[in-house]
User: Fold FMN-linked oxidoreductase from Guyanagaster necrorhizus.
Amino acid sequence: MPSDLERCIMKVVDGVHAQGSYFYMQIGAAGRQPFPDDPQISRSPTFPHIGASALPPSAGAPASRARMKEEIKEHLDFFGTAATNAAGFDGVKIHGANGVLVDEFIQSMFGRAVEAVRGVVRVRLRLRPSNRTGGMGMDGPLPTFSHLVMRVKELYPDFAYLHVIEVRVDGGREVETDDFIRKILWAPRPVISAGGYTRELGMQTAEEKGGLNAYGMWYISNFQSDLPKRLEKNIPLTKYDRSTFYMEILVV
Ligand SMILES: Cc1cc2nc3c(=O)[nH]c(=O)nc-3n(C[C@H](O)[C@H](O)[C@H](O)COP(=O)(O)O)c2cc1C
Assistant:
């Protein structure tokens, strides 16, 4: 019996399908990123603060508890359950970027091996090799991420696509691109890339490199007025307001 929330979500999914588009559900575990003084954590015992190891995400931040071996299996089951619950969507996307739990298992500073998540329907994966935020950013990410991408390619011929986040969103830092994934490793399979796209940069990238571009912050401030149409017709975009990005939600 679906809950009220699930019924509402499926209405949105049905609406997207009615317009001839697709909808993937992102599933992920936040790992060490949320702090225990985050209201979502402190008010609910169902959100233990665990990560791949007991390293804090930044100096002075509370350290997460290193997950125990049996909790890895438990988390794999959580991912499986979440994927099963996504029936009605066109597939699921595993969040493996921005320092969330899967990213922690990939990157070497945790000294842990990556655990494969299996048994889901149409899967896509979101990666961010060059990310420095949230205390991430292993030295020399290329061999690790190359191996990961090649293994996914070998093991899962039906894998829907990879979604990478370009590092230029880190502002002020030298721009690095994840073209090695797009051009060398994953080609000719589909890549979606996100990170700091303007209309001009998006069009240029699509023309020069192919694939799809994703818009994050611009989508938030323009989704009600149809961002794709605005981009297509070159209608000015409504500027986003960072102070509205994150809200406190009471979890009971
Ligand atoms: C408020 C906010 C929430 C976000 N939440 C997620 C998330 O849950 N999962 C994810 O993969 N990326 C998340 N992102 C990252 C965006 O999907 C996107 O990759 C990032 O904002 C860079 O693209 P942009 O420069 O077009 O905004 C979030 C970004 C913002 C601003």
In short: The chain has two domains: 22-214, 220-252. The first strand starts at residue 24 and ends at 27.
